[in-house]
Amino acid sequence: MDSNNNHIINQNWLISQVKKHKAKLIFANIVAIIATFVSVPIPLLMPLMVDEVLLNNPSSGINMMNHILPEALQTPTGYIALAFLLIVLMRSISQLLNILQSRQFTLVSKTITYQIRCRMIDKLGLISIQQYETKGSGGINSHIITDIETIDKFIGTTLSKFIISFLTVFGTAIVLLWLEWRLGLFILLVNPIVIYFSRKLGNNVKHLKQKENHSFERFQNRLIEVLDGIYQLRAANKEKIYLNELKHQADEIRHDADKYAWQSEAAGRLSFLLFLLGFELFRAAAMLMVLFSDLTIGQIFAVFGYLWFMLGPVQELLGVQFSWYSAKAALQRINYLLKMEEEYRPKCQINPFIDNQEIDIEVKNLNFAYNDESQVLNNLNLTLPAGKKVALVGASGGGKSTLIQLLIGVYRAQSGQLLFNGTNVDNIGFEIIREQIAVVLQQPILFNDTLRQNLTLGSQHSDDELWNVLHIAQLDDVISQLSDGLDTQIGRQGVRLSGGQRQRLSIARMLLSNPKFVILDEATSALDTATESRLHKAMNTFLAGRTTLIVAHRLSAVQQADLIYVLEDGHVIQTGTHGELVKQEGLYQTLYGNSASSAATPI
Ligand SMILES: Nc1ncnc2c1ncn2[C@@H]1O[C@H](COP(=O)(O)OP(=O)(O)OP(=O)(O)O)[C@@H](O)[C@H]1O
């Protein structure tokens, strides 16, 4: 579990990422400070215009303007026009600097979220299959897409606005202190009080965001399942029931999202109301000061200007905490995924496959259960001799596919040993073992891509090689008739192919990977007997000298094996060749005894 925690996104990791972008962030902050410096003095032009121009009390401001303006323009209209141009210039510069600053933040946030996404994708390759089965792809999907989006928004938008807003409020308070220290002090005190209360209010709503996320995850998981099974559901006329269930889950999202939306909005508005009350108090105090102190009308305009100036940034600051709650919840969910239990991956200490020799496999006293409820493999003992074809038969649910899962390391036995060429799998490591194995499943996994890509899975092979394996797999005739040949798109999960064609494509893929150990798990179950027989004949040359494990129910697939194991309740009850076993009283005879001459025997 400790090693899993190495992947999580914590403060240290974030700090290390931020350090990588130090230069950009320092630049962004300097830009933010300059932008604030440029925009904060704008309201100061108010006292100048009101006191010195409108009320005709020329002072230092007018003197300064006279340095810039030619004599002919040194009139109230000229001063107003100059102030107007100055303000336009200052506002434009400040906005341009804001754009520059937010650009820096976007660059940083996109890079950091890209890093998080890569970290999650790396993790996907490590998570144990058991965890995948429990979590479902929808949940994982939502972490990689929605949660990262939330974090991206927080870093890129909220955080960059936070800096500008904070600097603006701070700068405004400084100018107010300078204009009238009592008013400045007042603002400096009001803001922390408002932020304190708004945090209290925010605390009451943060769990609602998590609830909304959970509903969303449940919905997404179910949606993916329903879409994957839509064909079956439609055929069984159960589509409506499942779609209604989805609607019900969508309604849960509505309920939870609505609760969070209005309560966070209300909390935000209440905080802002608190600020507005402070604001009104401040305004009243400022007017009293005009009456009872030397604050001028112009200065009070400046003070009001600053209050107005502050409203937006204060609202941004108050909103930051809600984005923070969302980002924190998203981070927690991302870390949940990053902490998921990983597949057991022992390091390679011995490589028993280096001499290109055939592979023999020994299974010794193997015990395995998926959960506490039932034992699937019970002290299983068997041998797959090098270069031989071994069939595994038995009633459904006997543990045949489970043994395959253990052989390829998808699950791990609770006790017992698995030996490849006499070496325990724990000393070899499954990465090395999987290089030697190819598994063909009853329902092959195909991608919505070309035939070529589905065959090669990204490795480089010439067309001749591809056509050769397609020929062995009895698929070359079918594919040569397609107008796009190897570049034909096969659709989602290979829907444009028949069940038998999908199985043959999967066999061709196995042939191409040139494995030393072949596992065929009901790999030809969808083929007609004539094609199946041709395929077995064609594959015989390829399989010679390769250890082959055949899991099948059909006699045609079983009887060609050099050795057959009959499995019941997770252990071997009979061993022998077809000829020997049909003569023995027992499960094999019950299953295949009367159909020795028939080509296919469904169980
Ligand atoms: N992922 C899983 N989680 C929990 N239980 C499982 C899982 N996969 C299989 N099982 C259980 O393990 C037992 C053995 O299943 P397994 O698929 O190995 O049988 P099998 O012999 O291959 O059956 P079949 O001939 O029908 O393919 C069954 O009782 C099944 O319910």
> Helix proportion of residues, in percent?
55-70%
The helix count comes to 23
Shape descriptor: elongated
CATH superfamily heading of the largest domain? ABC transporter type 1, transmembrane domain
How would you describe the overall organization of this protein?
This protein is α/β, with parallel strands linked by helices. It folds into 2 domains: 2-22 and 102-338, Up-down Bundle (ABC transporter transmembrane region fold); 361-595, Rossmann fold. It is built from 23 helices and 10 strands. It has helices at residues 2-5, 11-20, 22-39, 45-54, 60-68, 76-124, 129-179, 181-203, 206-228, 230-235, 239-292, 297-338, 400-407, 425-428, 430-436, 451-456, 463-472, 476-480, 499-513, 529-543, 555-558, 578-583, 587-592, and strands at residues 361-368, 377-384, 389-394, 415-420, 423-424, 437-440, 517-521, 547-551, 563-568, 571-576. α7 (129-179) packs antiparallel against α8 (181-203), α7 (129-179) packs antiparallel against α9 and α8 packs antiparallel against α11 (239-292). The longest helix is centred in the middle third of the chain and has 54 residues, at 239-292. The relative contact order is 0.08. Bound molecules: adenosine-5'-triphosphate.
